Amino acid sequence: MDIRILGAHNSESESTRLTSLLVDNRLVLDAGGLTSSLSLEAQQQLKAVLLTHQHYDHIRDVLALAMNFYLAGATINIYSALPAFEVTAAHLLDGEIYPNFMKFPEEKPTINFTVVEPHRAIRIGDYDVLAVPVNHSVPTVGYQVTSPEGEAVFFTGDTGPGLSDCWQQVSPQLLVIECTASDRFAEFGRKSGHLTPVLLKEELIAFRDIKGYLPQVVTVHMSPGLEEEIRAEIAAVSEELNTPITPGYEGMELQLSQ
Ligand SMILES: [Zn+2]
Ligand SMILES: [Zn+2]
After folding, report:
1. pLDDT tens-digit map of 147-158
2. What spacing in Å lies between the alpha carbon of 150 and ligand 1's midpoint?
3. I need a labelling partner for 216 at 20 to 30 A (CA). Which of 42, 153, 157, 234 fits?
4. Hey, is 229 helix, strand or coil?
């Protein structure tokens, strides 16, 4: 399984993109820095986009992607849990700010939107996909994607502390988890549903206690202005837990094999 980080930040600039992950050039998890990261040809290879929650930095490129698929006469599958679907349908695919690609063009709408139920595994192409609730300021699910060969990645989307229930349900080799701010913002993280390195450490200790191992860990959704601090604090956590934890970056490639 090949995973590429398309966007590793919570803020967009010339050098940073919003959160988005590409799996085997086929599946995309969150549509932040999606279209600006992929050629039109690469976009046409996509089979599905899975959205973790309704926040703008995670759903934004749904419209740009849909326009590209519409112009190519193709359709794209989009998945989310019910709350993110409702907000996306009401505010992004409302037919006012752009065409409602769930109904347009009439003869073959561009977007085929499927609502997923948390805790219920579904099949998307050759992949098993499981949506698992995490703890954010709005209803959010992480996704575990498992390849036919049994390789698995879990992407949290945005989350704060309190992931014990979530850990019970996943067994990834690679964990892509948010770490938005540095530890001086830990209180902000607890309140707003985000992680900092010290909060991440507690969640990883819980993971190890529950699962008896730690996966490879890559962090995303980093605030660019705090990245130096975040990196230093993550390095300390990595050393304390004696496990690799790597801050992600745009274009980072990760490979999982059995
Ligand atoms: Zn969010
Ligand atoms: Zn976000």
Report:
1. 999 999 999 999
2. 29
3. 42
4. helix
